[in-house]
Design brief:
It is built from 13 helices and 13 strands. Keywords: ATP-binding, Nucleotide-binding.
Length: 343
């Protein structure tokens, strides 16, 4: 459904070059639900905007839904849906007019457009709101209208840029419920960007982690956590002596010898895969050694741990890449500038 090779995008910002995307190779199969995850400024939106033909790549190639983004942009646009970061609908227009206008944009016959609008209003629980001006809708309703607009042309491939930014957790869950249902009903491929870790973890089947314009990891959330992060088990004992007994037992067992923190006190902290599955065996081992914890807690690995282990930085920090870094003398000699898109 998507195939890219060495996709790059360089912007000219004043005298500086900003290498927003630095050679992305990507394959997305039909039916996949893929999330681009990364900090602010990582290059997620720029990648998405190239795949949706809104920006032309500085170098490299991309085929999207069977068409080339450079040489067949109109064909790509016909075959995809795109839901950008802001609300696409005009404030004063009525909901139904927005949907029909979108139908005309995609050259749907009026009857087909009417039918499709009715179907989407139902599916996204917007029915009853047809005649309301967009400005009177709630934030969640407006975002669902954006989704409906993106689906008017029945695209086999839908791109969503930060679909749930600014929504409260309940609104986000509700939007996702709708998106997933639409996807199941229509068998769509979904590609989205997000900086909500939990959203990528819960919803995406595949997470492509982007940092500084480069793909640094690409796998299912479960696999990423297994490969790049650990669950953390904390056992708390009633006395330091007992904790020391536990540490001695762990040190003597090669499975755990280098998996726990050597620190004084009543707590023993272990890093491990499959913490919940490991815990009974660990308790058994400690019990046999004469140490029984008063409390045990497991903190499961997160995608933030994955990002931290891969980059040394937390995704939760506000991380905006320094343009100066991208505007170095070496960068200035690069020949991939696309002046047309300079900001
Ligand atoms: N039109 C532009 N002109 C100059 N620089 C740009 C332009 N668009 C994006 N950039 C820069 O390119 C880099 C990547 O931006 P991009 O918007 O793709 O990141 P992102 O990962 O989508 O971030 P966010 O999560 O904040 O949307 C940033 O350094 C950004 O400032």
């Amino acid at each position: 459904m998507i195939h890219t090779e060495g996709l790059t995008k360089t912007f000219q910002r004043g005298k500086q070059l900003v290498h927003a995307v630095k050679g992305v190779d990507l394959d997305v199969a039909p039916g996949e639900l893929v999330a681009f995850l990364g900090p602010n400024g990582a290059g997620k939106s720029t990648t998405l905007r190239m795949l949706t033909t809104l920006l032309s790549p500085s170098s490299g190639s991309a085929r999207v839904a069977g068409a080339d983004v450079r040489t067949q942009p109109a064909l790509v646009r016909r075959r995809i849906g795109y839901i950008g970061q802001g609300n696409g609908a005009g404030h004063n227009y009525r909901v139904i007019d927005e949907l029909r206008a979108q139908g005309s944009f995609h050259r749907l016959a009026p009857a087909v457009s009417r039918e499709r609008a009715a179907e989407l209003l139902r599916a996204l629980q917007l029915n009853g709101l047809e005649k309301r001006p967009v400005m009177s809708l709630s934030g969640g309703q407006r975002r669902r209208l954006d989704v409906a607009m993106g689906l008017m042309n029945h695209p086999p491939l839908l791109f969503l840029d930060e679909p749930s930014t600014g929504m409260d957790p309940q609104g986000r869950a509700n939007l996702w419920e709708h998106i997933i249902r639409m996807r199941d009903d229509l068998g769509m491929t979904l590609v989205l960007t997000t900086h909500y870790l939990e959203e990528a973890d819960d919803m995406a089947e595949r997470v492509i982690v982007i940092d500084h314009g480069t793909v640094i990891a690409d796998d299912s959330p479960g696999r990423l956590k297994l490969d790049h992060a650990d669950d953390v088990i904390t056992l708390t004992f009633g006395a330091v002596d007992e904790a020391d007994v536990a540490k001695r037992a762990l040190r003597a067992d090669q499975r755990y010898a280098d998996r726990f923190e050597e620190r004084a006190g009543e707590a023993v902290v272990l890093a491990t895969d499959h913490g919940a599955r490991q815990l009974p065996g660990i308790l058994h081992l400690l019990e046999a050694a004469g140490a029984r914890p008063e409390a045990a807690a497991i903190r499961e690995a997160t995608l933030d741990d994955v990002f931290l282990n891969l980059t040394g930085r937390s995704l939760r920090e506000d991380d905006t890449p320094d343009a100066a870094e991208d505007g170095s003398a070496a960068a200035r000699t690069a020949n991939t500038t696309d002046g047309a898109d300079a900001a």
